[in-house]
Write a structure and sequence with these properties.
The chain has about 500 residues and is of the alpha/beta class. Helix content is about 25%, strand content about 35%. The protein has 13 helices and 30 strands.
Amino acid sequence: MSLQPVILSGGSGTRLWPLSREAYPKQFLPLTGKYTMLQETVRRLYGIETEHPRQALGLLDPIVVCNEAHRFLVAEQLRHLDRRPAAIILEPEGRNTAPALELAAVAAIDKGQDPVLLVMPADHDIRNGHGFRQAVADGYVLARQGAVITFGIVPDRTETGYGYIRRGARFAAQGIGGEAYVLETFVEKPDAATAEGYLRSGDYLWNSGIFMLKASLWQRLLERFRPDIAAAGGKSYHGGTTEGDFRYLDAAAFHACPNDSIDYGVMEQLTGDSSAGEVSALVLLLDVGWSDVGAWSALWEVRAQDDAGNVLDGDAFVHDAQGNLLLAQHRMVAAVGVADLIVVETPDAVLVANKESAQDVKAVTQFLQQEQRSEYRHHQRMHRPWGSFDSIGFGDRYQVKRLTVAPGQSQSLQMHHHRAEHWIVVSGTARVTNDEKVFLLTENESTYIPVGTIHRLENPGTIPLEIIEVRSGSYLGEDDIVRFEDAYNRTENET
């Protein structure tokens, strides 16, 4: 039997605005180190086979479930790890974790296997990787014997922002290094007094959202407790199509799928169902420096601090200041004589908040969404499968952008109805299609693309291609595009 990582990458991370945005949420950001949170989730299992050779874990390539709009981000970040996924399953819209796990289970079984699924959100931070792998190895022993495993975080403080798990009696288990307990119940987020009582009792754990069980067992349980989700999930998967690593779903079937979580849809039903006695619902303890990095205050806790408790990232300076988080992406940020502040500076937005109000940042994103402001969805730097671009200037009837085209990549063969473009090569070599002509441009050379001209920009070289693009015309929006050929199979509605 094998261990199948299932990475759920559907979150939007709105409480980490302005760094996390809808089109580029927190799981794709390097918030806690060199690697992004998605990459850290993949890397977290590196070494588990050699650390636990007796158990013959047989680690499989990960299945990632994500929003369809994020598919190129996922593929690119896995490519940088030199790790090919077993599948990247693309949801047309979010339907919570129970449908996502059903899709992954169907995909695993479709490959002719019945592995143990290790279900992990893509946006967690775990500082003790070895301890986590030991707990996973214990969970694998129990899950392959038919148990359903959840992982409870040993709390180190009173916390009202997490759901809790109440553990029951010790579960006698052979062949594991840690302790397993009967999963008694899940508990909603408590008020402060209740959370204090939970901490004192020692019987309550934070709900990590990490689960382990065999793929076939998940399907049986879902068919028992949420047959509507099982039917809709299976129909959407089997009615879909595969293109390379991407699995596209039948959109109509998936839109009809109910929204529910693993916890509510199955786990709570399992612990309260006397007829489910043949299935052991267990909780394993995790004391591994876990955080869901759900708000700026959580990031402050997990990052390295100076002697005064300040976390400084980028061109930041403090004087007579304590317990602050300063993140500077674009300009210098200085704080003097202040305490417990969050200051996050990006090229197009600045957040200033008290650390105690970190959960209320979602009020900003709600406002931006209601007003249909671009700062809700996009960064100033926008990522595309071929590279990225930055807006560096604009005015009436013109825009200036800096384009970076990755080696070997190309834009669509395309045309615009309302704008002309002037391209100037800053570094690298460009292959340009301009109507009937195809030619190369090198540093300090340029070309003009008139309105209505069919054109394409490519990077045939081995270093990034940097271009300054000047747009001019009556309408400059990203949706003014007609594609004739596209290497990434994007639709007309995708920019």
